[in-house]
Amino acid sequence: MGYLLDKCHFGILTSEIIDQCQPYRCSKDPDIDSFFHKDTKDNFSDYRSEMMGYTHCFYTEEESPRMVCAFSLSNSALRTDTLSKRKRNKFNKSIPNTKRRSQYPAILIGQLCVFDGFGHHSIDENVGDEMMDLIKTMAIKPDNDCATRYLVVDALNTPNVLEYYKRNGFEFLFESDEEELQCLRSYDAGKSLFRKIQERCHLAEKQEAPACRTRLMLFDLILLRQ
Ligand SMILES: CC(C)(COP(=O)(O)OP(=O)(O)OC[C@H]1O[C@@H](n2cnc3c(N)ncnc32)[C@H](O)[C@@H]1OP(=O)(O)O)[C@@H](O)C(=O)NCCC(=O)NCCS
């Protein structure tokens, strides 16, 4: 039990729900804020209509509801063929020999946000952690038609966001920014992905080591197996 389960409704985010709710905002990140609103560019609704991601939300049960938090999920894959041999061997240790593959089934957390007014300074309960527990529960539901082994996220590379995912049991796939960049580069150097890499990096001229804008993190759902 927690704030979300006790005091909120849960549903797929729609324009109708947005219209019912009081205005809401994620002031910590304008891009994420824009994703969770209607009539904005490249938002949750575009992803839904292209069947690229479904966005779920929690909003209070009050007569004039407040939007508490939201997240989007997509089917994805965790690739290990882009890893160095040493890293791949280390990773594969948690998988029985006969089940080892170059990619594993995963669910991608595309966007995720606790809206202003519901962060840890505002209410006693930690809504962000409860939301993550519920995402994990959704991912391992026994009646899911499709199995998944990992939750993956391209986490914003800021101390607070990384700390949030670490606190919730996520770990880095790559040990450092440098290793992550190097691996992506060798995977598809010179091709379309390179543009994506550039977008993901702060390639400031004076910076000694480029930092990724996001870091790939994963949670192994087998840890929750009963
Ligand atoms: C990431 C998040 C779910 C973590 O929640 P939480 O750790 O339970 O608690 P809070 O929301 O209170 O955030 C903790 C701290 O991180 C900071 N923070 C969180 N996201 C941040 C971001 N994107 N940029 C800068 N600071 C951020 C908060 O300002 C807060 O700092 P403070 O303690 O100095 O006030 C939530 O902060 C959030 O929704 N952030 C904005 C959206 C986001 O960054 N999503 C992650 C995408 S990968």
Q: Can you give a write-up of this model?
A:
It contains nine helices and nine strands. The chain is α+β, with helices and mostly antiparallel strands and 226 residues long. It has a single domain (3-224), classed as Gcn5-related N-acetyltransferase (GNAT) (Aminopeptidase, 3-Layer(aba) Sandwich), CATH 3.40.630. Helix 8 runs antiparallel to helix 9 (192-200). The longest helix is centred in the middle third of the chain and has 13 residues, at 127-139. The structure holds coenzyme A. Residues 26, 28-29, 32, 112-114, 119-121, 126, 128-129, 153, 155-156, 158, 160-161, 164 line the site of coenzyme A.
Order of helices and strands: HEHHHEEHEHEHEHHEEE
Structural class label: alpha+beta
State the CATH superfamily name: Gcn5-related N-acetyltransferase (GNAT)
Question: Quick check: average pLDDT?
Answer: 89
Contiguous uncertain segments of 5+ residues: none
- Give me the Rg, rounded: 19 Å
Helical content band: 25-40%
* E-strand count: 9
**Strand ordering within the main sheet:** 1-2-3-4-5-9-6
- Quote the beta fraction: 25-35%
- Biggest β-sheet: count, sense, barrel? 7 strands, mixed
Give me the CATH architecture, please: 3-Layer(aba) Sandwich
Please work out how many helical segments DSSP would assign.
9
Ligand names: coenzyme A
Whole-number tally of structural domains: 1
